[in-house]
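Quarterly update from the structural biology core.
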Amino acid sequence: MGESEKAVTGDAGDRNADAGGLEGARWAPLLGRTLLVGLTWAVLAVLAVLALGRLTHLDDALAYPYTVINALTPLVYLPAYAAVAVGFGVRRNLLILAAVPLIGLHLFWTVAELWPSSPDARPANSVPLRLLTANLQYSNTQAGRLGPQIEARRPDIVVLEEVSPLTLAGVSGSGALAGYQYHVARPDLGAFGYAVYSRFPLSDVRVPQVGREPLARMTVTIGDGRRFTLFAVHTISPTTSAYTKRWRAQLDQLASDVRASSLPVVLAGDFNATRDHRPFRHLLDSGVRDAHDVAGAAWSPTWPADQVLPPVIRIDHVLASPAFAITVYHRGGDDGSDHLPLIVDLALRGRS
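Predicted structure, tokenized:
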């Protein structure tokens, strides 16, 4: 082959290589866009199945892992918003239309958790009381850090969960509990010890076993002899199928107890439940109000508080009968636990 023929052949090869490179460059964005659209459809399909399961009460039938999924509702459906952005970006109207119902459901389920409102005004002739509740985390070596919060807020009643000898010693050692004349303390080496410290008399203490764990309740007498029933709540975490059955039984029993109570009630503690759990909504329907919702505290998650990222789930609650005005709701600071404490101001309305 002559030099001229080699040159021609070389030029042709270069042109073919350039054409192949251009062809590859042209197909690469198209392939990437196809993969993005496919992935977005897959995510929307998963979210649609989860939403349909919740709407058809499949979450009741299956229980776990829906208990975990529903608890994360504020976060789980966020990819639907990203799907709208993808739809606009790649001009796929069907993708946008598929994401919009999921966004609508997400807003319906979460806006109440985010929307601020105004707390109750304190009624005339009412008896005020301040309550602090905190899950200490039974292995917490820094539980004494709750002491300054108790001293600063001066609650009338302190309800503590996961009270172990270690955590009780920590809080007691701070000196913050010394001024409480009345108390019931049942520490435990595991996660289900509890304690109640009160400036008001406590009586009729009962500790039935529900779901194989204690759910304490007692009568509190305040003001001119007015009384109410206080529940120190710590339900089991619904992180397995067996635990979920016990957790549901505990919440159902609390709802029955609220309905049967002849006195106003206050339930305070770690419910391991959010408004996205149907058993917790049934408890609210039994005749109590969530202090967070009444006071309009907006986004105030309480768990997990011991991670690099801030808490994302509100599973600690104070619930009260309508006989109580709810005037203040405040989320406390870090006390070394994986939960943040709550401080709530209540006012028991006067006799009519």
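The longest strand covers residues 127-135.
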